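Quality-control log, excerpt.
Job 1 of 2 completed; input and output follow.
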Amino acid sequence: MKKSFKMKVPHTYVIIFFIVLLMSILTWIIQPGEFDYESVDAGGTTRNLVIPGSYHTIERDQANPAGIIDFAASFHKGAIAAADVVILIFLVNGAFHIVIQTGAFNTLLGSLLKRFYGRREKILVIFLFTIFALCGSLFGMLNEFNGFYPLFVGLGVALGYDAIWGASIVALGAFMGFAGGTMNPYNVVVAQSIAGLPLYSNLGIRVISLIIFSVISIWWILRYGTKIKKDPSKSFMLGEKTAFSLNKEELLKYKVTLKHKFILIVVVLSLLLIVWGSVRHGWGTTQLTGVFILMGISAALIDGWNADKIANEFIKGCASVAFGALVVGFARAILVVMQDGKIIDTIINFMATSLEGLPELLASYGMLVMHTIINFFIPSGSGQAATTIPIMVPIGDLIGVSREIVCLTFQFGSSFADLLFPTSSVVIVCGLSEIPIERWWRFYGPLFGIMFIAQIVIVTAAVIIGL
């Protein structure tokens, strides 16, 4: 009998190791170069924008191509560069572990389980996804939802699905909303300001895009959930456990006490405080972690813990996410190597100039591909806009691609890959959810391909109607 061949996905650290190694080698092959920048007011914010046509090569001795020691040391440098996110993952999970140990988290999931288990699950998915998508589309909210991942992972497992199913409601909701940004200040406003377009112009195409992306994503989540409900062995998390993997039967036995109610009130108020502070006062990871530390300590004190128990349980929570937290730091080494070798601008310039001479429709597709690839090198949406829009607008003007199309391809390309490339937000999502990134790729990879086809269709329609 012939044995069926089954490809095994390498360990996350192995994948990252070889990507860093490849980029280190490329720093010796690709000519180093850089753009010149100028400070420009874009949408009321002063930004350093690339000066079109300013790219120039530099001597290799002016860069720092990665030798053997540089390659090995890049993981340390990457962890330092990503320290704010690494510490975020440790502290958030440490605080949530305390809440779990008080039993309040379990009673909350038990209550949700009783209310939504069965046919209402689909309604719950659609409702929650829509909330996250609208927040991402209207306000550009992404990091504001970091504290929700443990809760939704626990909910997903409790409802009989898995961690990926639960986390995807938050991640796909927020990031698909961000990609289909209607009034998103971090991609739509920045890109249109730099391109010299009226703010929020051609809103209709972005509303349609948001609806298309949301429908496909909800279908994908429900499809995956149905598959693993019928056959748990189909779960991409098979054999993996997280601190939030709780038993359904045990959850249903929990009885809500007065202490639990007070603790849950603290948790809800903490999440609302984070969202409010991020939207109204621009809070970042520093303030977010501060709120979670206070949340964990408050929950423990309400439950009657002493200081030693709080410290011990907090450490246990941090230890459980060491794998995911370190992935963030090690993945940042990819960017560190390329930045030190000064090859990022060379790659961007090559891709941009290769579009010259192409017909309008092909050039539009090329811009979409280019912006998607550049997300690997510049994971920041506003950072990518400041680098690519000043380059792409003159090229678009030259070959007949409208500035609206330039901004639309940027909006799509700078968003979808956030949940794919290890240099971007996916490592944060997986770290907070305790999901190995290679397991997430198995879930999101095919969806990314489907979404790319949808983007091509939308861009084609936009070009045909003369957007």
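Job 2 of 2 completed; input and output follow.
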Amino acid sequence: MLKNNYFKIIIVTIILISGCQIAKKSQQFYENQIGDTPFNKSLDNSNFKFCDSTNVLHKRAYIQYTGGEKALEEELIKKYVFQPEHKGFSGYFIFRFAVNCNNQTGRYRIQILDPNFKKANCPKNLETHILSISKSLKDWNHAFYKGKDYDGYRFINIKMENGKIVKS
């Protein structure tokens, strides 16, 4: 019986060690791969460069806008020019972009969603206008984490109703 319990303990230990190794590999894949936005020459400015593309921080909360979220929202609204033909659009613009350690932005990607959060379309000139406003924002502060400067990613969510930006 002692021999049988010893055998069970060895089997359980091997299973636990294997499981930890698999979890560790999955975590490494997640941290290094998820969310990276590869350069696309048809979308991206070739002058935008990461300071260290091998060490991009995926903790978007560490990238701040000078003056905070309220200042960011005010800047977006101030720069937005309402066009009556956009009155029929309600939904969301979700931008994802990179901020490098020099506070420069690039690699913008956009998703347009309807009020039910399903993929949607909007007038092309509205999309272009919102994208140009987002790209014009210059008061970004790159990620600083555990005493080090990092490149990273950030999101901007813009809610619109009847062609107008809605304050959060």
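Post-run check on job 2. The chain is about 35% helix and 25% strand.
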